[in-house]
Amino acid sequence: MEDILVEIVENTRRELSGRKQRVPLSELEAALKDRAPAQDFAASLVERKPVAIIAEVKKASPSAGVIRKDFDAVALARTYAETGAAAVSVVTDHKFFQGDIAALSDIRRNVSLPLLRKDFIVDAYQVVEARAHGADAVLLISEVLSADELAALLEVTHQLGMQALVESHDRRHLEAALATNARLIGINNRNLSTFRVELMTTERLAPLVGPDRVLVSESGISSADDVRRLATHGVRAVLVGETLLRADDIPRKMRELMEA
Question: Which of 21, 68, 104, 243 is the most exposed place for a label (fewest CB within 10 A)?
Answer without folding.
Answer: 21
